[in-house]
Amino acid sequence: MSDQMQFIVEKLHREPFRKNYNLITFDSLEPLQLLQLLSDVLGEIDPKHTIDIREELPEQTAKRMLGLLGILKYKPPGGISDLSAFRQGLVTGSKPVIHPILHWLLQRTNELKKRAYLARFLVKQEVPAEFLQDDTVTDINNQYEELIERFKNLHKEREQLKTSGLSTAEIRKDISAMEEEKDQLRKRVERLKKKVETVPNHQQMLEIARKLRLEKERKESLAQQKKEQKYQLFHAKQRLQRAQLQLKEMRQAVADSKPESLMKKLEEEINFNSYLVTEKNPREFESKKTSIYFLEKVAAEPAMTQSDLNALKMKVHEVNIQINQLIEKRMMNYEPTDSKLLMYEQQAAIISQKKAAKAEELQAAKEEISRWERQMLQKTKQVQELEGSEVLKVDEFKHYVSKLRSKNTICKKKQAELAEITVECEVLQRTEELLKQRHDALQQELKSMEEKKGISGYSYTQEELERVSAIKSEVDEMKGLTLDNMSQMVKKLNALVAEKKASLAPVIKELRQLRQSYQELTQEHDEKKIQYESCAAGLESDRSELEQAVKGLLEECDQEESNYHYVNCMKRNLEVQLQRAKDEMKACLSPDPRERQKTIREQHTRRILEQENLGKKLREKQKAVKESHEANMKQMKMWQDFEQLMECKKKCFLKQQNQTATDEVIQEEGKDRLVL
């Protein structure tokens, strides 16, 4: 308690209260002063409560404070039985009531300010049901609820923006950096314009550059369209392959099965689908709907603190204790009929769970089959892309196997030849190694002989000289041939150049004229191309408009045709019903009683009479049962008493027999002892 008071006094010393209290002065406050202090704290949280309590009645003060504390979700200490004492203590300004409230409010002032601010807009004003019958009041109430939802969304967006980390200083900094970058780009553009203005025909070049940029953008868009169309084509091919595979499977199923098996299969599929539609999917939908409702309810509530969570945990614990107590009470009041019913309920629940599990397994198996089918189609597509052909059929595969066997025999022959060549190569390699060893041995002997004679290195030097002289002679011969060839080639080239110049002079003149005409034709071609593209674009737009118009007319035609068929079917149904009505009237007006008995009215009349007679008999039977009920119950009670009496006699008789048998045994034992 002293820690609580110390905390309250410290908080009241600070802004915005500035109360010069210590523990003694705070503890010596009068009830009216305590209530005024509580009102000031509540006024700091919600400015509407900044009121002098001397200007209002005590009941109004208590009502106002209780309303705000309820909005702030304050939970007084103690159970439900202490609520009246809490209200009385709040009216009288009791310290055990006011001090915990002040401690709770001063602990979470900022959070409570936010909650009070939201409560001003989110606490709905309840409208009586009799006023909601007016359309104007209903519309205004709906607008009011829509505004509340809009306020919730805006507040959530504001909180998200506050927590996103974007501050005004950072935004201003980014804006200033962007403006600086914009100025730099403007200056750079001006410099480039000045440079370009000195270039001749710069306007034409700029126009060409603009056209080039537009064409590049158009090229990129066309490439994107091409990519999208390829993607759509790929998916369309996949759908076509799946449809073809399903058609093939269905044809095989139709060819290999009988009508009875097909009907059985269809009935199983219909039963499974009806189970999904009527039981499984609605149950899942309801569970999802309830979970969404609870999540929306939780999201609509303001943020909860740790104390609120602890209070909820305590409440859950109490409810669990109550549930356990009720279960124990039910077990104490256990009856056999309830156990049988419970057993049947458990069996039904187990069967429903098994049914749901099997349905989920079946659904998963179907999804697995579809996944494997998609994977098979993808693998088939990959094989077609790699091999360039479809997957082999049975005959083609047999032909491929025979071809592979012939190639296998050829491969075995080649492998045998390769083995022979490998053996021969190994023999030659061994021969080469022996010759190299012999050559090395001869070289060693030659070196040793040269060292003995005092002319070491003579053979190596002689070999080098011979090699160098051979290379020199070859180079000299090549130089001479090269010089002769080059001089002859230069003469031939000069003569050929002179001939070509003489022959190309008129061609060059014609080429200049052709270049000029080519430039003119190129310019004319560009102009015609632009005209063609504009005309093609106009025609393309006209064609698309016509296609849309034709599509709309075709849809309208289909709609009218379906309407015609629908009206025709309705007409036929009405004609059939009219014919049946005519036949009924004819049978009713017929003088023949047999014909009149066949009418639907006569049949229903007979059935009504039969049911009335049956109901009369059942009522008479019920009356007889009611009359004999008391006598039968008395007779049953007498039989029960008689059965108990006979059971008691049976027990007594058995007990008497046991007693006589034991007496006889005791007497026999006594006689035996006397004899001994």
UniProtKB/TrEMBL annotation:
Molecular functions (GO terms): tubulin binding
Domain IFT81 calponin homology: 3-125
Coiled-coil residue windows: 137-253, 309-452, 504-563
Record GO biological process: cell differentiation; cilium assembly; intraciliary transport; spermatogenesis
InterPro entries, A to Z: IFT81, IFT81_CH, IFT81_N_sf
UniProt entry tagged with the keyword Coiled coil: yes
The entry's keywords: Acetylation, Cell projection, Cilium, Cilium biogenesis/degradation, Coiled coil, Cytoplasm, Cytoskeleton, Differentiation, Phosphoprotein, Spermatogenesis
GO cellular component: ciliary basal body; intraciliary transport particle B
Location in the cell: Cytoplasm, Cytoskeleton, Cilium basal body
Presence of keyword Nucleotide-binding: no
Pfam families according to UniProt: IFT81_CH (PF18383)
Source organism, top-level taxon: Eukaryota
Family listed: Belongs to the IFT81 family.
Function: Component of the intraflagellar transport (IFT) complex B: together with IFT74, forms a tubulin-binding module that specifically mediates transport of tubulin within the cilium. Binds tubulin via its CH (calponin-homology)-like region. Required for ciliogenesis. Required for proper regulation of SHH signaling. Plays an important role during spermatogenesis by modulating the assembly and elongation of the sperm flagella.
Protein name: Intraflagellar transport protein 81 homolog
Organism of provenance: Urocolius indicus
